[in-house]
Amino acid sequence: MQTLTLIGYFATVCSKTSFTPQAWKIVKTRDTSGISAPMYAITVWDSPCGWPSAS
Q: How far apart are CA 47 and CA 44, in angstroms?
């Protein structure tokens, strides 16, 4: 595997893992008022757009 591909995979794991604490808090408290709508939209949009470039 190329180094750049490994860096991309690592960045993806870091990016997705960074949302785990927020998701856990939402599950525990059932409070979604702290979610930033623009940030959530960017995250949701970025995920499918990044898939073709990973292959």
A: 6
The H or E element containing residue 52 is helix 37-54
Q: 54 with 8: CB under 8 angstroms?
A: yes
Mind giving me the DSSP string for 8-37? HHHHHHHHHHTTHHHHHHHHHH---TT--H
**Whole-number CA gyration radius for the chain:** 14
How much is the pTM? 0.53
- Joined tokens for residue 15: 């990016």
Average pLDDT over residues 16-38: 86
